[in-house]
Known about the structure:
The complex is a heterodimer.
Chain A: E1 4-7, E2 10-13, E3 19-25, E4 31-37, E5 43-51, E6 54-57, E7 64-66, E8 76-78, E9 87-94, E10 103-104, E11 108-112
Parallel strand pairs in A: 2-11
Antiparallel strand pairs in A: 1-3, 3-8, 4-5, 4-9, 5-6, 7-8, 9-10, 9-11
Chain B: E1 9-13, E2 18-23, E3 31-38, E4 45-50, E5 55-56, E6 61-64, E7 70-75, E8 84-92, E9 105-110
Parallel strand pairs in B: 1-9
Antiparallel strand pairs in B: 2-7, 3-4, 3-8, 5-6, 6-7, 8-9
Amino acid sequence: NAGVTQTPKFQVLKTGQSMTLQCAQDMNHEYMSWYRQDPGMGLRLIHYSVGAGITDQGEVPNGYNVSRSTTEDFPLRLLSAAPSQTSVYFCASSLWAGNTEAFFGQGTRLTVV
Amino acid sequence: DAKTTQPPSMDCAEGRAANLPCNHSTISGNEYVYWYRQIHSQGPQYIIHGLKNNETNEMASLIITEDRKSSTLILPHATLRDTAVYYCIVRARLGTDKLIFGTGTRLQVFP
C-alpha cells in the first residue's frame, strides 16, 4: 500500500503565486486533514474533511482552501502565497473521524519568497 | 480538547528504557490519551493509545494513572532510531477528529 502520498515534496513560490498541494490516500479512509508545521512548533490543523463533499476549518485556515470531491484526494490550495505560509505541510488520513490511528504523508516543504 | 504538558527534552542510553511523562490534569471522562512520534521531519507516526487501562503493543507501553491525570509512555529498549519528538495528545474518540499537537518531548537516544 502506498498509504498517504503528498506531492510535491519541495516547492518554492513567489509571493502572490497560487498553487495546489496534492494529497492522496489508497486506504479508503473517510477522514482527511491538513497540518502545517513551523520550526520549533507542533503541528497546527488547517482544514479537515470527514468525507467526500464535506470540509471544515481547523485552527489556522486563513489563506487556504480545500475541497473533497473524492474519497481518495484532498488537495490544499494556496490562493495567493505569502512568506508567512513558508512551512512544512502534512496531510493525514484515518478510517473515520474518531478513529484512533492517523496516517501521515511525508510532507511538502514550501518556501515562499 | 484537554491540554497536555510534556518536558521539552529527555535523554536515554541505548538499550535502556525510555520513560516519557505527560500531564493531562483536565482530561475528561470520554477522552483518550494518544501518543505519536515524529522522526526528523518525517510525518508523525502513531504509537499507542489508551483510556484508563495500561496498554502495550509492539512499539511501546502506556501507563495511565488511576486518576487519569497523567500518563507515561515507555519504550522498553530504546534504540538510536527512537530518537524523535514524542507527542502526547488527548481527545475524544467519537465526533470530529481534531488531533491537536503540542510541542512534544524531544527524546535523544545516545550510544
